[in-house]
Amino acid sequence: MAEHSVLFTRKLPDAVERRAARDYRLIANPDDHPLTTDELVARSQDVDAVVCTVADKMNAGVVSRLSARVRIVASFGVGTEHLDLAAARARGLVMSNTPEVLTDATAEIALLLLLGAARRAYEGQELLRSGGWTGWGPTQLMGRQLSGKRLGVVGMGRIGQAMARRARGFGVEIHYTDQRRLPPEKEEGAIFHPSVDALLPLSELLSLHAPSTPETRHLLDARRLALLPRGAIVVNTARGDLVDDEALIAALRSGQVGAAGLDVFQGEPALHPGYRSLPNTFLLPHMGSATIETREAMGFRALDNVDGLFAGREPPDAVV
Ligand code: DGY
Q: What is the pTM of this model?
């Protein structure tokens, strides 16, 4: 009989559930419905660990109602804005995330969004699927080419660097901003700018890779969008609240922003309806880390943290 019990708030990949069921008494969520706070609190009564996701709001109210038996909340994801770290600290609860393992998958989606937005992939799909395509045309669906352009990366952490590396392979020149300049081996030739304002005027392509914090909220607002070269392509795989939606939609309508590739939305799963009606948006439903390889690795990494705690070690990815 397993010594500890673990609650999964959502359905996780089979291999992850198999490992958890092998090592713990697992309370799973086979129909994958998002738990209400009351359900989460009720299910926590009998468990020592909760594996939650970035879609579960582990705010102070929820944390205070979790069973006193719960010793760790291991989040399946790298972002931590849904975790109230202060509330966890106050009750001696460990919280962890899953860094590193989703870097490549997220960078791939950023590149997909960049290509999809620049090359008008949504409009091309629509033309074919609607049956409206009448044949090849020399001026049909002309987009923007990546090669020879400058990409501005806001937030040159692991995912920003991985995106930059991929874009470089497309003949793109990389510029970036972050709180501080990276050492040359991490820069890989990318050009540092000391502020977002300094980066934007040369960013024909722009990709956001900053965390969601009070400081980064609406980082891309009307004033900053006006600093971009006219027709710039904007990509966001980080968090929706980095962008002022009204301002981006106005810029997409006016042509100040040529196209946007977005995987994340403020208030998701709702998204500003303006995005849906614009032809120059290429939209995905927060699937940056959604590969089998990565989602399994994220689950294993969350379990590594649970294992660590119950083995008396420091969980490797503890954020509090
Ligand atoms: C994260 O990990 O923070 C992503 O947004 C979901 O994979």
A: 0.97
